[in-house]
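Reminder to self: tokens first, then the designed residues, so the page reads top to bottom the way the pipeline ran.
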């Protein structure tokens, strides 16, 4: 069994991780006998109409955990269940966002939860075939999920008559191609179809024209893993957790300069102080917190002075950031923010698929500008250039969110640490240890 580095057990807010840590939970036998597994699938297939399942998910208020936070039940209702021809469910298990490992935690601990969630979703939207697009580097999660699917197949839950219901359900796995862009939903669909992973322009959205041109529901692993609980306990019970507009709990993978990096289940509305200082054990090595990324490297940074920001999506939007992929990256006061931003920009520039001009050109341009600044060749011109490039990457100017993310790194680090940028660019010095200049 993998080492547990995060939430598990009998806490009242452990909706997803309640049974994590149970020996052999990854086997069908233990998932059913100890964790009540597949009861939700039985209920959904035998006692509920597909529209009722979707309505229950709507009532829960669940919002996608992959990045954008779109309302899950509403997304399901976009698929015309009665339209003729094949429809698909595609599960995004690419998880390439820096600082994010929550889906891996799920797959390694309780892969049957995902199998169950997928089967319920497929039945609800009228699909018979599901594809899991799993990050190519995820060997162990791939192995565990494959084994779970095969066990479910042997038991008949995946197959022509799941739970005796005349409704064929199949799940297949597709190993991803090792690029960050493969997690973007339309690039993922291209990759799944055997083409180069590049985003499609939208509309049409995947619900209308997705995999192989067919109506497709695309959801993140954690989103679907939440569904069995909702079916078992009801959407209203789920909505009691969290806040009005961001109900429920979510998994946050906390990494960086903390004492206890790991994956923690957090009721939305709790503060980041709770996540970083309590759950993840505070800042390591006796240093102070400088800055954190609240939702993966793509989410705009927040300085230590904003540690009491709440984890729900509305509070994060008010703080000019986002919950994103649930990856909380923590940096202490021994690090230079300009260097950190440079490092991330190198990542975004390298991972740009090159299909749209602002992202293809902008990322490299920003990297070269950071390099001039860090080589003590900067001036106000370089600062202005960075801000102009950042603006050119945002607000719909790129085909997908990768460009926005690159822009937000520049923008948000400059907004909160302007003085450090000016130290580097104008005075040619690095004063690591400075606190944020604004909140
Ligand atoms: C560059 C980029 C990478 C992404 N990577 C992932 C990923 O690895 N996993 C994921 O679930 N969503 C990822 N997303 C978000 C997906 O496009 C999509 O919004 C999500 O999978 C939808 O599922 P949800 O509604 O359940 O959140 C990424 C988006 C962008 C722009």
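Designed residues (439 positions):
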């Amino acid at each position: 069994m993998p080492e547990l580095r995060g939430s598990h057990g009998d806490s009242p807010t452990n909706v997803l991780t309640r049974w994590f840590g149970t020996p052999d939970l990854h086997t069908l036998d233990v998932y059913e006998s100890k964790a009540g597994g597949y009861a939700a699938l039985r209920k959904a297939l035998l006692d509920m109409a597909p529209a009722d399942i979707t309505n229950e998910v709507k009532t829960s208020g669940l919002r996608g955990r992959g990045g954008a936070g779109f309302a899950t039940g509403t997304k399901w209702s976009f698929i015309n269940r009665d339209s003729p021809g094949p429809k698909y469910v595609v599960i995004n298990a690419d998880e390439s966002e820096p600082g994010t490992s929550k889906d891996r935690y799920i797959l390694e601990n309780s892969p049957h939860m995902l199998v169950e969630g997928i089967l319920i979703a497929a039945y609800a939207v009228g699909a018979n075939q599901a594809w899991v697009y799993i990050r190519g580097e995820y060997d162990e999660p791939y192995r565990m999920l494959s084994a779970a699917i095969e066990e479910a197949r042997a038991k008949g839950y995946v197959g022509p008559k799941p739970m005796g219901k005349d409704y064929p359900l199949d799940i297949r796995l597709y190993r991803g191609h090792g690029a960050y862009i493969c997690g973007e939903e339309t690039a993922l669909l291209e990759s799944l179809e055997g083409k180069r992973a590049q985003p499609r322009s939208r509309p049409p959205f995947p619900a209308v024209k997705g995999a192989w041109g067919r109506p497709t529901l695309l959801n993140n692993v954690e989103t679907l893993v939440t569904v069995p609980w909702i079916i078992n306990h009801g959407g209203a019970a789920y909505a009691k957790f969290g806040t009005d507009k961001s109900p429920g709990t979510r998994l946050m993978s906390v990494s960086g300069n903390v004492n206890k990096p790991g994956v923690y289940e957090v009721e939305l509305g709790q503060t980041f102080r709770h996540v970083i200082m309590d759950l993840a054990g505070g800042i390591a090595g006796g240093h102070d917190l400088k800055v954190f990324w609240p939702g993966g490297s793509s989410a705009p940074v927040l300085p230590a002075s904003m540690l009491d920001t709440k984890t729900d999506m509305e509070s994060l939007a008010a703080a000019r950031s986002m919950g994103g992929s649930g990856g909380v990256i923590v940096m202490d006061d021994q690090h230079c923010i300009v260097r950190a931003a440079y490092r991330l920009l190198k990542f975004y520039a390298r991972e740009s698929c090159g299909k749209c001009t602002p992202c293809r050109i902008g990322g490299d341009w920003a990297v070269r500008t950071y390099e001039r600044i860090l080589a003590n060749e900067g001036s106000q011109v370089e600062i202005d250039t960075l801000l102009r490039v950042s603006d050119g990457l945002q607000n719909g100017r790129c085909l997908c969110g990768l460009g926005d993310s690159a822009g937000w790194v520049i923008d948000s680090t400059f907004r909160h640490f302007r003085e450090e940028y000016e130290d580097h660019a104008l005075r040619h010095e690095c004063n690591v240890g400075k606190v944020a200049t604004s909140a």
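Confidence is low (pLDDT under 50) at residues 435-439.
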